[in-house]
Design a protein that fits this description.
By secondary structure, this protein is an alpha+beta fold. It folds into two domains: 3-186 and 406-457, Zn peptidases (Aminopeptidase, 3-Layer(aba) Sandwich), CATH 3.40.630.10; 202-256 and 302-370, Alpha-Beta Plaits (2-Layer Sandwich). It is built from 14 helices and 18 strands. The protein is globular, with a radius of gyration of 23 Å. The relative contact order is 0.19.
Length: 458
């Protein structure tokens, strides 16, 4: 273990970070509501310790059936007349499944080779808490800073239902209004070169249920007679794409606004090549429509992805049944020009039209819709960020159009009128959303340094 890691492990930063990581804040799981409230309370107390006003906030009357996971709101008063800054991040995490693929306990921080392994180590507890540590150091040094407002989300991974509901309230929107919005929940370029995210895809995720017989049937007695929900779901999911990988859903791609030549060139300059992707994921990056570059497919094209199919028997040995139902989890990523509600209706209509004979398709759950966001490259805030990041790294910053989504950022931008600035420090080896998620001390230090530099510059 390096000397710098040993010193860091003795610091309050690591002690507090590890304490936060140990809380299993799966915001989409009702069994973890208490853990989420515990983490929110912990963050409120931490913000108060650096001089900020902070409280837990829930919408009056609940969030339309969503889990009561609170948003942490706070404000740290800065110098009068300075620019106000809204800091957005989230303390909820993805479920740790599949548990058997973790090398270490998913909610016990483990240090190995300069990295901290734990669910949420990077996404987003690591990036968020490192940023907060940078704010704390500015306060401790007595540096003049702008007024900083905090909105810490407990459901980003499942649609930010509580925060979206809060944004309907005029008083809440006024409370969090700011000039600039800083988000540390994205990635850097290869070898941790700084990256400014100039766009995010929108997202929708939902459940598809296919029902056939009134029970699972004996495959000998009913084979060749009864419709098979497992086979039907496979056919239904396959119908979503054409043989060349393009989306086959009528109307789904209507209205797409393509990137400008300048945006496409900037994206290509900061993007990994096919060899790097193959080394990262262990296979060819051949998903999506044939004939389009990796950058086009990941940054500027929409997707429909099957996140999971659950049906029939999957245990040891065999169980000779014809499944009576199948469940599929789907997500779509959207680009500028697409209407989220219309794309969802297009997918549902497609699945109804292609529903196999003798079966019924339904949509028992959806987790909300968010539009894509694309920011102008000429933004003065981007020029400031480029200058700050050039001080941190002589290679300078690149621009990226992130294929992922942070659903509530567009809504926050509209509700607060704040200019968004998304700079993060994630890397492919962090394995976010997968077993063995991790975050390195180098990345933690970069996120902390960025917070201090950008707030001082603003």
């Amino acid at each position: 273990m390096s000397e710098s890691m040993q010193d860091w492990l003795k610091s309050d930063d690591s002690k507090n970070y590890f304490e936060l990581l140990r809380m299993p804040t799966v915001g989409a799981d009702p069994t973890h509501i208490r853990d989420c409230v515990q983490a929110a309370t912990w963050l409120k107390k931490w913000l108060k310790s650096i001089g900020a006003d902070a409280e837990l906030v829930l919408p009056e009357g609940g969030a339309d059936g969503a889990l009561p996971v609170p948003v942490v709101c706070g404000e740290l008063k800065g110098a009068e007349g300075t620019t106000s800054v809204l800091v957005y991040g989230h303390y909820d995490v993805q479920p740790p499944d599949p548990l058997d693929l973790w090398d270490t306990p998913p909610f016990e921080p483990t240090v190995k080779d300069g990295r901290i392994y734990c669910r949420g180590a990077q996404d987003d507890k690591g990036q968020l808490f490192a940023f907060l540590c940078g704010v704390r150091e500015l306060v401790a040094r007595g540096v003049t800073i702008p007024t900083v407002k905090f909105v810490l989300d407990g459901q980003e991974e499942s649609g930010s239902c509580t925060l979206f509901k809060l944004l309907e309230d005029r008083a809440f929107r006024k409370r969090i209004a700011a000039d600039v919005m800083l988000v540390s929940d994205t990635g850097a370029a290869a070898e941790l070169r700084p990256a400014i995210v100039a766009g995010l895809r929108g997202v929708n995720h939902f459940t598809v249920k296919l029902t056939a017989a009134n029970r699972d049937l004996h495959s000998g007695e009913y084979g060749g007679i009864a419709p098979n929900a497992a086979q039907g779901m496979a056919e239904l999911m396959a119908s979503l794409h054409a043989p060349d990988g393009s989306i086959a859903v009528k109307g789904f791609c209507d209205g797409i606004v393509p990137p400008t030549e300048e945006e496409l060139a900037a994206a290509e300059a900061g993007f990994a090549d096919a060899a790097a992707y193959k080394a990262d994921i262990g296979t060819e990056p051949c998903g999506g429509a044939a004939g389009k570059s990796i950058v086009q497919r990941n940054c500027f094209e929409p997707t429909i992805e099957v996140n999971g199919i659950h049906t029939g028997y999957g245990g040891p040995g065999s169980k000779t049944v014809i499944p009576c139902e199948a469940i599929a989890k789907l997500s779509t990523r959207l680009v500028p020009g697409q209407n989220p509600a219309r794309t969802f209706e297009a997918v549902k209509e497609h699945l109804r039209e292609h529903c196999p004979k003798g079966m019924e398709v339904s949509f028992p759950e959806d987790c909300g819709l968010s539009a894509a966001m694309r920011l102008p490259l000429a933004s003065p805030l981007f020029r400031l960020a480029e200058s700050v990041l050039a001080e941190m790294d002589p290679r300078g910053a690149v621009f990226m159009w992130d294929g992922a989504s942070i659903p509530v950022v567009s809504a926050l931008r509209e509700a607060t009128c704040a200019a968004p600035l998304l700079v993060g420090w994630g890397q492919p080896e962090d394995r976010i959303h997968s077993p063995n998620e991790s975050f390195s001390l180098r990345q933690f230090a970069a996120a902390k340094d960025w917070a201090q530099r950008i707030l001082s510059a603003i």
